[in-house]
Amino acid sequence: KKASRSKKDAGAPKRALSAYMFFSQDWRERIKQENPQASFGEVGRLLGAKWSSLSDSEKKPYQDMAERDKQRAETDKAAY
Questions:
Q1: pLDDT given at position 69
Q2: Where are the domains of the chain?
Q3: SS3 of 6, please?
Q4: Tens digits of per-residue pLDDT, 35-78?
Q5: Where is the sequence biased in composition, kind Basic and acidic residues (predicted)?
Q6: What is the maximal distance between C-alpha atoms in the chain?
Q7: For residue 6, what pLDDT is reported?
Q8: What is the chain's percent helix, strand, coil content, to nearest 5?
């Protein structure tokens, strides 16, 4: 038997996104345009490789966005 999952509350606040997720949202379309035949998994691998090749200073804007989103999530969770 499968264990049943409890239903998620639709009104619950969204979790904070990581720096990589902000980067992924920003770059996914560009990667897909450069590689139109790439599958979803291949696009993910290309995004991962691009993220790994970025310097700390290039990652900083995404890390700042993640930090702000983390604070937003904590505030939303406290208010919930």
A1: 96
A2: 19-79
A3: coil
A4: 999 999 999 999 999 999 999 999 999 999 999 999 999 999 99
A5: 56-80
A6: 50
A7: 77
A8: 70, 0, 30
Kind and range of the H or E run holding 73: helix 56-79
Burial letters 26-65, b for 16+ CB under 10 A, else e: ebeeebbeeeeeeeeeebeebbeeebeeeeeeebeebeeb
- How confident is the model over 17-40, as pLDDT tens digits? 999 999 999 999 999 999 999 999
Residue pair 17/73 in contact by the 8 Å Cβ criterion: no
Fold of 19-79: DNA Binding (I), subunit A (1.10.30)
Instruction: Judge contact between 21 and 62, C-beta under 8 A.
Output: no
* 26 dihedral zone (left: phi>0; alpha: psi -120 to 50; beta): alpha
Q: How far apart are CA 65 and CA 20, in angstroms?
A: 10
